[in-house]
Amino acid sequence: MTDVNAEATAARGTRRTMAEEVYLALKRDLITLRHKPGAALTEQGLAERYGSSRVPVREACRRLQQEGLLKAVPYKGYFVDRVSLKDIYDSFELRLALESHALSRAAERATDAELGRLAGLAGTEYTFHDWESYTEFLERNEDFHVQLAALSGNSRLVAVLRDLIGAMQRFFMLGLDLGDFAAEMRGEHEELVALLQAGQVDAAVACLRRQILASRDRILKALASGRIDLPLE
Which residues are CB-contacts of 164 (< 8 A; sequence separation ≥ 6)? Predict the structure, then answer.
């Protein structure tokens, strides 16, 4: 009985590992728009693409539904959630409220050492028109903003903001390919940390709001331009 239980436990662990791998790979492809918004996906097709059985795919898709990246339709499969102007505006409105509050709390609590570590995350750029570079940059950008929120000491706020920024990554991807903003975005992050280190809280909040709104406007401009080069396979 012990051997059987051990084998069952090992099997569950392997399945969880595979489900995590599928989840991460599929999420990355959704964020980088390799799966076009509105596209239909099937468990069998995803299993073949990611080299797994259908069970890990189902578990991964369930998580991505909760994050707002996929929608399930009975007897038809999954559909990539569409990008809408309302969702963009709503998401940025919520992010402004959450991250501005987190920044104000972080300014009250953060130590010099913590701000120093945050400064280390600020200096990151991307290579224009390199979609793989965009993906890596967005991951590091998410780390910066989540770590900034973590300095607030409010773990629930951090969890909500992390999920929100994760779901917004597809939006950010659209804005990056509109032009080469790498140095500008790095400068924005470095300016934000410098203001916090100088104790200029109001200026830091204003800086953050300016950055968030600039990001939103780049995305809206990209959608309006019709010049987005999606890396579809």
Answer: 91, 94, 95, 98
Q: Which of 177, 176, 178 is nearest to 186 (CA)?
A: 176
Please report how many Cα atoms fall inside a 13 Å half-sphere around the Cα of residue 186, on the Cβ side.
11
Helix spans in the chain (H): 2-31, 43-50, 54-66, 85-109, 112-122, 131-150, 155-176, 182-197, 201-225
Q: Which two tokens stand for residue 6?
A: 């051990």
Residue type at 84? Answer: S
One-letter amino acid identity for 70? L
Segment-wise mean pLDDT, segments of 10 residues, the chain, 233 residues: 44 66 93 88 96 95 91 93 89 97 96 96 88 87 95 96 90 82 91 96 96 91 68 41
Residue ranges of the domains in the chain? 2-80, 85-225
Question: Residue 9: what pLDDT?
Answer: 44
Alpha carbons 10 and 2: distance in angstroms, whole number: 12
Under CATH, which number does the domain 2-80 receive? 1.10.10.10
Q: List CB contacts of 19: < 8 A, sequence separation 6 or more.
A: 55, 56, 59, 60
pLDDT score for 41: 96
What's the CATH architecture for 85-225? Answer: Up-down Bundle (1.20)
Q: Amino acid identity, residue 202?
A: D
